[in-house]
Amino acid sequence: MERYNRQLLLPEIGEEGQARLRAARVLIVGVGGLGSPVALYLAGAGIGTIGLVDDDTVSESNLQRQVLYAEAEVGLSKALQAKKRLEALNSTLQIKAYPTRLTRDNAKAIFADYDIIVDGCDNFATRYVIDDTCALLNKVYVYGAIRAFEGQVSVFLYNKGGKRYRDLYPDEEEMLSMPHPPKGVMGVTPGLVGCAEANEVIKIICGYGDILAGKLWQIDLKTMETYTILL
Fold this sequence. Notes:
The protein is of the alpha/beta class. Helices cover 37% and strands 20% of the residues. The chain has an 8-stranded mixed sheet with strand order 3-2-1-4-5-6-7-8, sandwiched between helices. The longest helix has 19 residues, at 188-206. The protein is globular, with a radius of gyration of 17 Å. The chain starts with a helix and ends with a strand.
């Protein structure tokens, strides 16, 4: 257990918590700016099974913030390259790659093997698919989103009858009709928000701390102000 020595020393983790991490099955939808830190820190923590869903390929413009990838991987599948990177980081884990786009047709089959679904995507349509499928299968949905210097994190469907993404943004038609936000973003923004998502996953699995269920945590990196609102 030398690999996990530093977190085993924490009473919130210990051997029991590490065993829970080892038994956990977590799916990350989108292995880009948000998904990169989520995947790296969950693999580092020892999550036993990690799934990676992404149909995109690595581009040069990704490298500023998508820290899973290297220059030599430009043009290659993100899901497959992320799998290789995580296996190199922690060979004791089971990493499954799904180099496909998440849709209403395949979500149920993919989600079925996992306990927690983590949002690393960048569009509203996919988030509604995640939310609806998690509600159908009783899966916990760890949500994260970013824009420029800002980000937010919440945990949906943590308990039966718990808050959902649809409670935060109930009008799907209106959300999908909105123009795409500007693509500008600081690389550290998804890094911080992705780490916050990974933190919620570990708390949920090990059973400590205050979970962001029914709450929305937000951060502004320009001012470093954070606040949490009740949903």
